[in-house]
Every structure is written in structure tokens, then in C-alpha cells.
Amino acid sequence: MSTLVLESPRLFDGQSLHRDMRVVVEDGRIARVEPIAGTTPPGGEVETLRGAFLMPGLIDCHLHIAGYVEGSPAGVPFKPVKDFLRLLILNGITTARDTGNSIETIQYVREWGERYAGPRVFASGPLLDVPPLVWPFSRIVREPAVARRQVELLHLEGMDFIKSYRNVGPEVLAAIVETARGFGMDVAADVHGVSALEACRLGVRSLEHAFNLFDQRALGLPDDEAFRGAQGRARVWHHFDPASREAEEMIAALLEHGTYVCPTLLVSHRWCDLEAMVHEPYLDYMVAVMPYHQYFKRMQGAFGMAIGRRIMKDYLPVPKPSRVEKAEIDDGLAKVRAFVGLLHRRGVPVVAGTDSPNPSIVPGFSLHQEMALMVEAGLSPLDVLVAATSRAASLLRQDDLGAVRPGCHADLLLLDADPTEDIQSSRKIRAVVKAGRPVDLDHVHAKFQESLTQRR
Q: Which residues contact 96 (CB under 8 A, 6 or more apart)?
């Protein structure tokens, strides 16, 4: 039996840092974690990997493994999904929390991931919602009795948790949470029909999108057109006071109920700024998953942007704000970031997630961008690594993920630099280990490039 050994001058174990450590992996699990000095490396058939920084594989806590094929998908319906998974692995993401998808897609990605060293996938499956529906993979739950049956069905279909979506009201959400608990399942909530505060008090495990923690109703603002859509929500936050009674009430409820918050800061920024969408630095990679991104490249000049805004206004409603509106939007987004930092400092469990593949939210790359925004929000780089590893695993209730200790799954990441000194170093990946086996990153990249070439 071969043994894998990883050695590094800096080890992040999911909680804290250690110097000059060796990790011994056997049968897909971590067998030993020990100092390099004074210990003898294992004998026999050994493969050794070395890097400047060793840590658990990353966990994206909010995404939707999806994509589409232009033209007939006959014979290749899941081709973009495979490229999505490849981008995750290439970026060191070994676990994904899928917060809304079809049962068939989840079944496929789990099977593919086991065969081809893809990420582990924990999934909610179809969203539970009330018409008018936003997504076609939603299931309608107008009444508590129907909601209970749908939760039971999702449990039988092998889903890991439940996702309650925007139009669900308090009575139905209460039924969802109660029924899910009976099956040992948690509930994630993307709220609108219920306030974030009420969802927290009803017992959801996580609130998705910091943007949604307050709306105009929660802050006593009029139900005005100016406060609708992403830009409107940012303008709501422009009126937010972190020292207000509303802010303190929210923090107290989150702490009392142990509710996790997945901020998804990047996607909130992007939905407020079409210029940022079309100038995404990893736009080329997105074409393999969502081919319409090739048209964004034509919008990168002034003329292309003017034409693009006119053509896309019915498909991608990101208006061009006035100077005053832009100032309010920027201030609102800054307040969202600052509140996330405050939540963390007060002890609310904050995790990292991206909501990929929203427009220009590129699978894999976007988690590193999200982590950088979390540092801007006031978390230290070490705090952010915790949010993307051990705390993310805690949200999933997976004690053997997101950590480097004996008995844990050997999902590991070797870097060429220390991200606790500069969070941007999380991108400098030397090696990815999934289930105790080094991933052939060159092969994964070549397969992805093959798909990308076919899409162009």
C-alpha cells in the first residue's frame, strides 16, 4: 500500500497555524500530523509533496453547479457541468455546497466527482418556493402540508439539506424547518416573503446573502421602486445604521439561534455594476459554462457597452445609475461589507460562498475573489481561511472535512505562498489532494481547455 506524505514549513489545520509539519495520508484519510523535526518519515512506497503552505481544501458554501450547451444538448447534456467541476478543483475547492439544483444534476455530479476526483457535493436539490417562481427546478409549497411532503421527498431522494426560497411565507417556513429537523436536515433560507430576522427565529441553519439581511420594510423605508432590484437593495443599505436597534436585534437573534451567514459579497457587487461584470478578469473561463459570456467581451469598449446595454436590458437588468444613485449604491455596498465584518467580530458564524454561476461569477476563481472581499470587510486572512474550511464544514455538520487532523478526509491544498500574509496567495496552487490522491491538475486543465476551444 502506498503512502502519501505532505510537508510544509507552514500548516493551517483549519483553525490555527503550525510550523514545519508533516501530514501522512493512508487510505484516503489523514493518518498522522507531526513535526518534521524529530520524527521519522514512513518507510515503504511513499510519495512526498512539498509546498510553502499546507491547508485543507477549500469549501464553497453557496453555488449552483449548472451550465448550458448552445444548440442541441443531445449526447452532452452535462458537458458544462463537468467543466464547472473542473474549475472548482483547479482552484483548490474540494467541497461544494449546492444551494439549489435539479435532482438529476446532483446525482450526476456526485457520480462524476467520485470517478474523476471532482469536489464532494452537498446539496439541497430543488428549491421550495411559491409562485411566481424564479427557477424551473423549484417545487411549489403553497401550504404547510405540501411543504412537509416535499421535505420528506427530498430526504428520500438523498438531499443533504433544504433550501427555502424567496416567496415562502412564515407559516410554510415554520413547517419546512420543523419537518426537516425530524429528518436530521437543516434549512438554508434566501428570504423575501419572510424577513431575515423572522427566518432566523424560526430556526433556519443559514441565511444566504448578507444583502438580504435588511430590506426597506426592516428599515422602515417606503415600498418604493427605487429600492427594488440589486441596485435598489444597495440603496436600502445606504440608509442602514450599524448602531441602530434593527442591527442590534439582528445580531442578537443570529447569536441566540447559532445561525450562519453566507454573505456572497461578490455577486451583490456584480449585480450593481455592469461594467464590473463585463471586465471580469476570468471571463474567458466562464464561456465553457455559460456561453453568453463571450458577448460580454464585445461590451468592454464604450461603443460596445452602449449597444450592449440596449440589447441586454430585458435579459440582464443592470441599469446605468445617475451620479447620486451611484454614490448611494457604493455606500450601501460598503455598509454591507462593514456589517459582515461586524457580524464576525460579534461572534456570528460567517462562511464563504459565491453564488456561482451568476453573471461573471466564475466557478472556482470567484471563491478567491470572495475571500479577498471578506478581508476588505474586516476579517483577517486567517479568519477567512477558517470561514472557507473548518467553519464551512461545521455548517455542513461534517466533522471530518475542512481540517487537517488524524481521521479527516485527506482533501488538501498545497500553496506556493502564505495566504495568512496576503489572501491573494490562496490562488498560488501547487497541488490539490482529493480523498488522499493528488489530482493531475495538468490533465484537468487540458480537458477544460479542450471544452473551451470547442465553445469558441
A: 59, 60, 63, 65, 88, 119, 120, 121, 122
